[in-house]
Amino acid sequence: MHISEQAARTPELIQTLTEVWARSIRVTHLFLSEPEIMEIRRCVPSALEQVAHLLTAQDGSGAFVGFMGIENGTLEMLFLDPAVRGKGLGRQMLRLGMEHYGVTNLTVNEQNPQAVGFYEHLGFHTWKRTEKDEQGGNYPLLYMRL
User: Fold this and answer.
1) Comparison of pLDDT for 137 and 101, the residue scoring more
2) φ, ψ of residue 88 in degrees (nearest 5)
3) pTM, to two decimals
């Protein structure tokens, strides 16, 4: 796998990463309905365009299989194609974020226990919990830090 920061965020790249997001969220965010996924999806391109540091992972054939966004020491997003989950790529990407981009904070849906466990395994702990997400939805968030 090749991980690199994307300075040029072309429409094609944004569309490709949005598709990775959609495949990922359908297997990790089982608490969301399809209409909710489609509603959130509308916000993904602007989030990808605006995040300070956008890092992508490509497999040996050059296909994009994951991405993460980092801003001011906070992991804003980390999504992997289901085909590469459980193979160490998420850990590799997050460690790179921690070592080279100063990631010490993140927010995760409480209803995504695999992600919560993943972050805990890498040394993060919950310091705050909210009943609703940032859009006011009934999805509790965990705020974690190293």
Assistant:
1) 101
2) 95, -5
3) 0.90
